[in-house]
Amino acid sequence: ASSLIPGLVALVTFAVFSGALPNGFVNWDDFETIVENQNFRGFSWSHLRWMFTTFHLGHYQPLSWLTFSLDYLLWGQDPFGYHLTNILLHSANAVLFYFVSRRLLALAARSAADLPLRLAAGFAALIFSIHPLRVESVAWATERRDVLSGFFLLLAVLSYLKAVGPEMSRAGWQRWIAVSVTFYVLSLLSKASGMTLPLVLVVLDVYPLRRLKGGLGRWIDAGARRVPR
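Above: the chain sequence. Below: its structure as tokens.
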């Protein structure tokens, strides 16, 4: 029962964007990124060196290139596979957004019943996933970097929320903070737009985490007490 709402969110998200599956590549970066670009088509040392050093078309996105390389090995130049990967990633993002929303809503409304929180989180996830602003990132093959960086960014936020939970031990705090930082780095290696995450986490510390209650000094001390001397 607990997986019903996020499962429906993923299903609706995939269904809404499934119309992009028969689309071809568009003459707006897709040809320069995928169709005419030989550099990502494989996992040899020369391919990997290019993917991890290039700023092709102005972006540093080695993990996004790795997913394009995997798509090429699976699908060749068939745009169906590239669109499918984008839609699957975005559907996963919708589910992650559900769990982030549920955690934040539970923190904000501490006395609320579980079912209303789940329904509210499901609604929030759907608003996020099928909003028209998502169309470019999902339906345009080149914008793989958006959905991939968002995937790791949401995992970073979830890991941080787990780390700062009141039930977390010192060892658990260290472990989950390390996991969050790892996901954050992976997000930046997919696209640099996630660099604002530390500021977002400070905002969450203010509300709904309420970790700044009592002033900045108490917030710093609360974090320091988790770090072994």
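Residues 109 and 117 are 9 Å apart (CA to CA).
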